Amino acid sequence: MKIDNIEDLRVLIETARGGSLTAAAKVLGVTPAAASAMLKRLEVQLGVRLFERSTRAMRLTDAGQTLLDYAVRALELLEEGEAQVTRDTRALAGTLRVAAPSDLTRSLLLPWIDAFLAAHPGIQLALSVSDRVQDVLRDQVDVALRYGDIADAKPGAATPAGLVGRLLCTSRRVLCAAPAYLARHGTPRTPADLARHNGITFHVGGKRYATWRFGRNGQWIEITLPSDRGADDAAIAHQWALAGAGITYKAELDLLHDLRSGALVRLLPDWTGEPYPLYAVLPSNRFIAGRVRVFVDFIAARLAEVAVDRERADAPRRRQSRTNPTVDRVARLRL
After folding, report:
1. Residue 331 within any structural domain of the chain
2. Whose CA is closest to 228, among 273, 183, 185, 192?
């Protein structure tokens, strides 16, 4: 290993954060000259320039950015290791960086996250809420909760990009609208009826999701609805649906509370929505901090509880459906 002094890595990190050696020196309690010497030593040991220097600022080179990403993670792992051997071995500590979809976070995750932090006061959460698919490695995310299939990923398997996907939930999309909208425009009975309705769309993977698929008896059809509005935030689409602006087609997990309360009504119950699995995406199988593993396990356990509650809520209706074939069949959330 070419790096002899861990404090040199701290200079790299603080210089990148503060934009200057003076700022780094102030944080680390050393003189600017000492900080400069430490950074120079690190560059000499590695044989690369880590910063482009100018009279105004210091800008990371590509090599510097790469080393910075690994240095931040390495020091966090060391801090967690120190915490484990110097404190109660059950205590977790350090920064937990989580990325999650906007609507899922607002409608389901926030109280769970609050409970997790209350149980582990040594953890500091950095939560990024966005429907943009984040680069887990580049954005320094410890775990990303992500909807949709991950290419070539299976539970516990690494993706081609060196990521690990753990399947948390095999939810499906459901078609729904507010009672007020249905009172004004009628309730669609078949997918073909949707051509006379207004769709509320949102972006998935940077593309507008306006063509919706429904299945029955092994056959799938695609429907493109007329739409007067769309957003790059699925939570906004959810709010528009609640306000009666149109019909939306979203992950059932995002809609559980509103479907249960009647604020939204499930449509076309005889048709199956597209599978929409939820994954926990991690940077790699190696050196995953304990706080990250515990958090993922915590979310997985809460989702399992949702599955049990959903089964209980649906049981009476399923029994009625078997005795009365005219009762709509409800597609169950599968977790």
Report:
1. no
2. 185
Q: At residue 185, does pLDDT exceed 70?
A: yes
Question: Sheet of 219-224: strands edge to edge?
Answer: 219-224, 211-216, 272-273
Domain count, the chain: 3
- What secondary structure letter does DSSP report for 245? S
Q: Report the distance separating Cα 110 and Cα 288, nearest Å.
A: 23
End-to-end CA distance of the chain: 45
Boundary-marking domain end, from 276, 299, 322:
276
Q: What is the mean pLDDT of residues 297-326?
A: 68
| In a shared domain, residues 139 and 187 | no
Token readout for 143 is 């775990």
Tell me, yes or no, whether 177 and 47 share the same domain: no
DSSP H helical ranges for 47-109: 62-86, 102-104
Q: What residue spans of 108-246 are helical by DSSP H?
A: 110-119, 179-185, 234-242
Domain boundary pick from 24, 58, 81: 81
